[in-house]
Amino acid sequence: MNDISANNTLPKGWLLLFSVWVLATISTLASLFFSEIVKLPVCSLCWYQRIAMYPLVVILPMALFPFDAKVIRYASVLVLFGWLTALFHVLLVAGYIPKSAQPCVQDIPCSETHLNVFGFLNMPMMSLLTFSLMALLLFFMTKSESS
Asked: Could you report the per-residue pLDDT of 85-105, keeping only the tens digit for each?
């Protein structure tokens, strides 16, 4: 029984979806903080990753109340798009993709990073890790709903 009001325990899928929403919300607030308050420049690839992240903050809570596991279909597409964009960005920053392939040569170069935490964790890597964790949580949610 997946009805939250029928018993006092929350379904595992609900908790996983809530965790994905928390990650999306923290990521959205952090990206806005760094661009609007700290004034770090935002490259084109960062904008594409934001395009994948921001809608999740709105879509996921609508599936939490009442719980609707079908949101996985929509959330997974956004997470996959964000993950692929973040992977491309990480490979570009690492030098595995030539700078001639970057989409933002004239404005803010996508191959430069303006924030490094612990000397190796830059914004594209944080984005990739966040999208990876979201994908993993959505995968576990799919498994919990099928059982």
From this structure: 999 999 988 888 887 777 765
What is the four-CA torsion angle of 51, 26, 66, 77, rounded to 10 degrees? 30
Q: Is position 3 within any domain? A: no
| Residues found in the chain | 147
Would you say 22 and 60 are in contact if contact means Cβ atoms under 8 Å apart? no
Domain containing residue 47? 12-146
Q: Report how far residue 114's alpha carbon sits from residue 47's, in angstroms, rounded to the nearest whole number.
A: 15
3-class secondary structure, 117 = strand
Buried (b) or exposed (e) across 81-90, using 16+ Cβ within 10 A?
bbbebbebbb
Tokens of 7: 């018993």
Q: What is the pLDDT of residues 8-37, one digit of tens each?
A: 677 888 999 999 999 999 999 999 998 899
Q: How many separate domains does the chain show?
A: 1
